[in-house]
């Protein structure tokens, strides 16, 4: 299995109710690079001693990085066919720690044809769970995806 298995879906191929998932294990690197990438050095993420005394008992992953991990599954599903990721709204329900294995599952809830844009909007609802089955985040997303017809009539992509 490769990171591109199941990717490259055209708008014409997607159906409401369709589901797809990706799994990733969070590492120490995600915590460290997350702080540097977004400039959030809150001790909940960067200071083990402080975090040990917090309600979480250890450092936790930035919510923004959890959200990005969820969004990556969408990007990979529509690799090569996505025109624009239009919207992403996440709600965090439990902490994510280094060592957690997150599975993000997305469900297509609606399809909005946009022929003038050469495809349509795929509306998605996602949930990320950890290795214990605990929901750590929920999200809504919208992505503009090319239709096969628009690309084939315009030549190769």
What does this structure look like?
With 157 residues, the protein is an alpha+beta fold. It has a single domain, classed as Hotdog Thioesterase (Thiol Ester Dehydrase, Chain A, Roll), CATH 3.10.129. 27% of the residues lie in helices and 35% in strands. It has five helices and five strands. A five-stranded antiparallel β-sheet has the order 1-3-4-5-2. Strand 4 (119-129) and strand 5 (135-146) form a beta hairpin. The longest helix has 15 residues, at 63-77. The radius of gyration is 18 Å and the shape is elongated. The mean pLDDT is 92.
Summarize this structure briefly.
It contains five helices and five strands. By secondary structure, it is of the alpha+beta class.
Question: At the third CATH level, what is the topology name?
Answer: Thiol Ester Dehydrase, Chain A
> Could you describe the largest sheet, including whether it forms a barrel?
5 strands, antiparallel
Question: Which series of helices and strands comes N to C?
Answer: EHHHHEEEEH
The domain count comes to 1
DSSP strand content: 35-45%
Radius of gyration: 18 Å
Ends: how far apart? Answer: 24 Å
Count of β-strands: 5
Average pLDDT over all residues:
92
Q: How many helical elements?
A: 5
Secondary-structure-based class equals alpha+beta
**Low-confidence regions:** none
